[in-house]
Write a structure and sequence with these properties.
Elements: H1 16-19, E1 43-48, H2 52-67, E2 74-78, H3 86-91, E3 99-102, H4 110-120, E4 123-128, H5 134-146, E5 150-156
Parallel strand pairs: 1-5, 2-3, 2-4, 4-5
Helix pairs in contact: 4-5
């Protein structure tokens, strides 16, 4: 089953492993990719609504899959909600050896911390929980490109 996508946004490879198959069509040498499809977007946003229990149930498999990434770099969580405790992360089956949880220091905000973590490139994926403005989305995307990482922002509505 295919879902409609905007032509201005490409599907991120971030979730290909989660889905179990590549979403990229097989192309022959004679087909030329359009310029917007040549580079995948390193920023993605997931919007969840409902109770925290429901959101954790949906989020668990995604975080577990990302924590088991074969990339030697970290899966980094920036200021996760209080409901995502160490006990819950462990019970959800995350590989805690490849997980880094960061909290902003005084004078620093979650956005700045996420940008820095992405830019440094020590994480394959940086997950944040920030209400973002359009310019901030672009900034996270640029930081992710610099660090060859993926940025996933989760909005809890």
């Amino acid at each position: 089953m295919q879902f409609p996508q905007s032509l201005n946004r490409s599907q991120l490879p971030l979730f290909e492993a989660f889905l179990g198959q590549s979403l990229t069509p097989q192309l022959t040498d004679s087909v030329e990719l359009p310029s917007w499809a040549e580079e995948s977007e390193p920023f993605s946003e997931l919007s969840l609504s409902g109770s925290m229990n429901h959101c954790r149930h949906l989020l668990g498999p995604v975080l577990r899959e990302l924590s088991q990434n074969q990339d030697a770099r970290w899966l980094t969580l920036i200021a996760p909600p209080a409901g995502l405790t160490n006990a819950w992360l462990r019970s959800a089956g995350l590989n805690l050896d490849r997980l880094l949880v960061l909290q902003p220091r005084s004078g620093q905000n979650s956005f700045d911390l996420a940008s820095e973590a992405l830019r440094l490139g020590r994480s394959h994926t940086v997950i944040s929980w920030i209400k973002l403005q359009p310019a901030q989305r672009l900034s996270l995307s640029c930081s992710a490109r610099l660090g060859s990482a993926q940025s996933l922002n989760i909005r809890l509505d």
